[in-house]
Specification:
Order of helices and strands of chain B: EEHEEEEHEEEEEEEEH
Helix content of chain A: under 10%
Strand order of the largest sheet of chain A: 7-8-4-11-6-9
Structural class of chain B: mainly beta
Structural class of chain A: mainly beta
Largest sheet of chain B: 6 strands, antiparallel
CATH topology of the largest domain in chain A: Jelly Rolls
CATH topology of chain B: Jelly Rolls
Shape of chain A: elongated
Oligomer: heterodimer
Order of helices and strands of chain A: EEHEEEEEEEEEE
Number of helices of chain A: 1
Number of domains of chain B: 1
Largest interface: A-B, 62 and 63 residues
Shape of chain B: elongated
Number of strands of chain B: 14
Strand content of chain B: over 45%
Strand content of chain A: over 45%
Helix content of chain B: under 10%
Largest sheet of chain A: 6 strands, antiparallel
CATH architecture of the largest domain in chain A: Sandwich
Number of helices of chain B: 3
Distance between the termini of chain A: 32 Å
Chain lengths: ~200, ~200
């Protein structure tokens, strides 16, 4: 086959450059996957545990999400957490843990249907999600699951970008717990996109 | 087929043992690319004074472009100290709300083009509420608590608003509040889906 030069398709006479390192020069506009998914399929969602008050100083299961899409993986993009530092002293750290394989709760929950972040789509997350209904001592679960992450958060707000590095396949679930040395208020937000494994 | 240098040097592009074509790329973030095209905007909603501990719907963003999409990329919030309030500020955002006084009686706000040499204006409606403005309908898409005296910037939001889509930002100061300042800025780009997808 003969050598080929890549020519501009807009009608100019420009030809693509190949340098002494044998690299073809390209120019790309980059957009993150979250934005691409929101624009294209719309499979981008958020779940929220709205402002809640801890019932005591134990560990409480607050939010659970299970991927029910048999084709797409769930890519967790961000974790937001707000904590008032405890309603008495306002300077106490709280603990948040994430568990894998959290079973469905049996009491003290409401189901949550997450809408697409593409506001033009009537699309909801292919997931089974429950959030604590502020009754009793967190959602009732037979076990939390396998602890995967655990961190302390001081008074304030944290926005942790996971960037899709945490992948939850079909049938797997994650659960989030909160614990603090004194009663206080907190809130939580999870953002994720769903994408077919074939594209990765 | 081999890819040759267009300048006539004779260099040819390399394909390595992992069958990858070697390239040298100039990467431009989509935000800068949109600004260069005059399609990136800032919405400075100004300062709100909230004098109660109940919810006030403060901003309404309605997208009216029939072919292109608004990609909301960043939101910036500044919550001042609260007089009399203790606890968290509740920040809520509603996807495609249907009513409320922030929509029926809001004050128009103009988005500023981030390319200062561009005369482009977005096809949209931006309305500003005030203390006590309301919102009805829609789906809650963000509901978080943040402290007072707090600067809060959310990057990489990547909401996509097609023609007729909208959202409202509402703020509830902490219990006991009698005065708290709030400032809000939204950043968004106009995206032609055909250029991205």
């Amino acid at each position: 086959m003969s050598d080929q030069r890549i020519k501009d398709g807009t009608g100019t006479s420009s030809l693509a450059r190949v340098d002494a390192d044998h690299r073809l020069w390209t120019s790309a506009v980059t957009k993150d996957t979250l934005g691409y998914v929101a624009l294209s399929t719309g499979y981008s969602f958020t779940w929220v545990a709205q402002q809640m008050t801890l019932p005591g100083t134990s560990e409480y299961m607050i939010l659970r999400i299970k991927n029910t899409d048999s084709v797409r993986n769930m890519f967790m993009y961000r974790f937001m957490y707000g904590w008032n530092g405890g309603s008495t002293n306002h300077n106490r750290a709280s603990e948040v843990a994430m568990y894998l394989g959290t079973p469905a709760p049996t009491a003290n929950y409401v189901t949550q249907t997450a809408p697409s972040t593409n506001f033009g789509r009537t699309l909801f997350a292919p997931a089974e999600a429950q959030v604590w209904d502020s009754v009793g001592n967190g959602m009732t679960v037979v076990s939390n699951g396998q602890r995967a992450l655990h961190s302390y958060f001081e008074q304030g707000h944290k926005d942790i970008i996971l960037g899709g590095s945490l992948i939850i396949p079909f049938g797997y679930s994650v659960g989030f717990t909160v614990k603090a040395p004194e009663v206080g208020m907190f809130s939580m937000l999870i953002s994720a996109w769903f994408e077919e494994a074939v594209r990765q | 087929m081999k890819v040759s240098d267009g300048s006539g040097s004779g260099y040819e592009a390399k394909v390595d043992a992992e069958l990858m074509l070697h390239t040298r790329a100039l990467n431009t973030p989509s935000g800068l690319h949109a600004a260069l095209r005059g399609e990136a905007y800032n919405l400075a909603w100004g300062q709100f004074t909230l004098t109660s501990a109940t919810q006030s719907a403060l901003t309404y963003f309605y997208w009216a472009d029939v072919t292109r999409v608004a990609s909301v990329t960043r939101q910036v919030f500044s919550f001042g100290p609260s007089t009399g309030g203790t606890g968290l500020v509740r920040l809520q955002m509603y996807r495609n709300p249907t009513g409320g006084t922030v929509i029926s009686a809001g004050t128009a706000v103009t988005a500023v083009n981030n390319n200062f040499g561009s005369g482009n204006v977005p096809s949209a409606t931006f309305l500003k509420g005030a203390q006590g403005s309301t919102v009805t309908g829609g789906t809650l898409i963000v509901d978080i608590g943040v402290p007072t005296s707090y600067f809060f910037s959310i990057a990489d939001i990547d909401w996509a608003l097609t023609n007729g889509s909208s959202y409202v930002i509402a703020v509830t100061p902490p219990a006991g509040n009698t005065s708290m300042l709030v400032q809000i800025i939204d950043k968004f780009q106009v995206v032609d889906p055909n250029q991205v997808l």
